[in-house]
Here is the input.
Amino acid sequence: MSDHEPEHPAELSFWRRYVFSTDHKVIGIQYSLTALCFLFFGFCLVMLMRWQLAFPGRALPVVGALFGADRMPDGYMLPEFYNQLGAMHGTIMVFLGVVPLAVGGFGNYLVPLQIGAPCMAFPRLSMLSYWCYFIGGAIMLGSFFAPGGAAQSGWTSYPPLSDLAPQGQTWWLLGLTALIVSSLLGAINFITTIIQLRAPGMSFFRFPFFVWTQLVSSFLLLLAFPPLQAAAVFQLMDRWFKTSFFLPEGLIIGGQLSEASGGGSPILWQHLFWFLAHPEVYVLILPALGIVAEVIANNSRRPIWGYRSMVFALIFLGFMSFLVWAHHMFLTGMTSSMSAFFQTTTMIISIPSVIILTALILSLWGGSIRFTVPMLFALAFLPMFGIGGLTGLPLGLASSNIHLHDTYYVVGHFHYVVAPGTLFALFAGVYFWYPKVTGREMSTWLGKLHFWPSLIFMNGIFLPMLVQGLAGMQRRLYDGGEIYAHTQSVLHWHKVISISAWGLAIAQIPFIINVFASLRKPKTASDNPWDATTLEWAAPSPPPPGNFLQRPKVYRAAYEYSPPAHDKDFLPQFQPEPAAQPEASTRL
Amino acid sequence: MPTAMPDAMIPRTVIPYTVEPRPDTGLSNVKIGVWLFLASEVMLFGGLFAGYIILRVGSTDWLPGSAFGLSVPLAFANTLVLTISSITMVAAWISLLRKRFSQYRRYMGSTLLCGLIFLVLTGFEFAGRLRQDQYPSTHIFLALYFTLTALHGLHLIAGMGYNAYLWGPGSRMWETAPEQFTQRVEASGLFWHLVALVWILLFPMLYLL
Here is the structure.
């Protein structure tokens, strides 16, 4: 690290400033834009699938012919291609879309600003983290052109199918390895930065809640991803060196006895996979909770209700998320004592989630709510995440899980958490911090045009899925369950869902226009356009290299809104105590 | 601490606490970073060892290493070599603390030599397996043996690569920033000890039990 000598940012070349930058803000923007592109791409994949589900066996007009004879001959979707779309939709949305946007994008940009740091602790690791993510994404996209197409064993890649799948699965494993390295580097960097680079006066309990969520998410990424890497190594060995880590004895493939030496266990993969993937679910949701807490505190003009309980709930949640993974595996024939353990931990982990959600709802009580666009998304997040969470309880209990397992109910449940849940929180974050990042205001009118149709279509997609799943409709069916007698009464919902999905795509057009058209507006945003209290609003909009013109000092907790006996309704963390006022000590 | 500066004058950011510890945490950035990295490595090998346990317990025809002619004396020699290399690694770091640079080079060189001996011995063992037509696909024990030792070997090679850099071209930093250089050697040493520790677990798992 010999590059400590002062150096003028203007001297950096274009490549060092915007492409191979070590500035956390540029990296945050790189992450955000790349992740938004992947979110859009992942959404396109599922829109294709929705055609097949709503109109099975019919040719997709116009675009269908573009995909070639080995995917959609004459516009008719092949089952193999449907499986590729499903597997890659999940992979892209989770590993390349939501987590990179929530952690890589918002986290990289905001965490140093919110703790008053000039940079990340390891700027070159930040850069490396982004480029590993980029390479992982490129491998995943490239896998569509591998012989036999992309991975098609679901985003969970269960063996033995994934062991025997075409080459795309190998690409998937290699891409995932790059993504694991990326999040590992990011996690180390975030934790070190948060512990070490806090501004003077920024104690842990003065952190904005968003910083806490990033800290806990980083620990989850750090400790949960390596076991998946171990599993990926085993699966690569199975595929390259014909070992049988996941292949049992006497496996019959296509009517033939497998040549594999056997002795392996397909269940081992499931354990290692879900040991990552359940904490990963919390990595998807925790930063979103952080964003919602910021937006709600700011727009209800009162301190977050129960900040400390939220922090302790968050830490407990992070810890417990390592002890619930096998509730995804109740149907693998585990003993009843095992399932008793995992359903108990699953019920326990719902408690801290409910504490956080309740605290956020109570924060609205008695506030002077401003219905800004970010606030609309944050408010919609609360019931949507609530539905997502509560529909998870029947899945966490082994007895009801037996009925609901692998049905559309599961699909509806986790999408409620991630799509109108996390994604709405991320939209709230984009609208909230856009003035800080660009120095420009977004259009409120276009924002509302984005919000209301999105809310309606999101529910048009996921609510019917719960109905279908309760009726017993299986997920991952190429024809959407057309051949089964018990699904006939709920088949018509497929059309409602698909039309809502395409409507949701149209509803994103105002957002895209808003993001790009607002860039052409004059730089009118002030440093603190929302009258907010946290440290990022002390920096200029957009913040220069080094972030702050003056090293910030922190004088108080994160959300001092509507303090008594002050002329303004907010008291920023960075503002020194005004001259002594007689009533100031008697806080209500 | 810098005070307010005009916009055009903002210097390139100086990262605080890269070498000197932060007063309230008592740690430097690098030390926290390395320990976090080691934690993730423990989880990686933890996942692999969990796989070993589950496969071994669930197997109906488990065979120990001796059934495939794995040599305990050779593995014991490997254990000894890695343990010695851990000690020389610590000695190299202490030499720097005592400002004895040429002593540091000797100890770091010995660490590298030990790593090389380990790789050569392991190479002999791999070659012996392949000569007897024992491949990863032959039996679940061999699958575990090859995967675990190869992954450990990759870690060893990575550690040796960085140590070689610190022994050779990277050691020029001793002239310009001795404290930072010492910290690098300490960090590399922490990783090296982890690599040795993993082998000490692999030795009974693959050869003795």
Q: What stands out?
A: Residues 14 and 20 of chain A are 9 Å apart (CA to CA). Chain A touches chain B through 59 residues (CB under 8 Å). Chain A has a mean pLDDT of 92.
